[in-house]
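Please check this:
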Amino acid sequence: MKILLDTHLLIWAATDKLPAKAVRFIEDRANILLFSSASIWEITIKSGLNRAAFSVDPAALYNGLLSAGYEELRVISRHALLVRTLPMLHKDPFDRILLAQAASEGITFLTADEIVAQYPGSVVFVG
């Protein structure tokens, strides 16, 4: 199964702070792990604003994810267009593009955000 991790899970994976349920998905060798270019963009912006939850070097995280075997999922227009069809449960544009990417590509989306977990489709709450 293809798994897309939300931005916080990517940061927690890099800092060994993942919830146990997320670890089970990540350690399952049958799963293909993905990260979004939108997450790297989000981390770059928010770490530059000195947000504590994003205090990770985005370049180091990016390289670490690739080294760990994660595949990059780039944002394309089809993903952006799907955002407007999502219910307005969550207003964060980064979360919304991640949800759209997962839905568009038929990928399971792992999140630690209870609000994001309310979206329909293959969204799994692991927080």
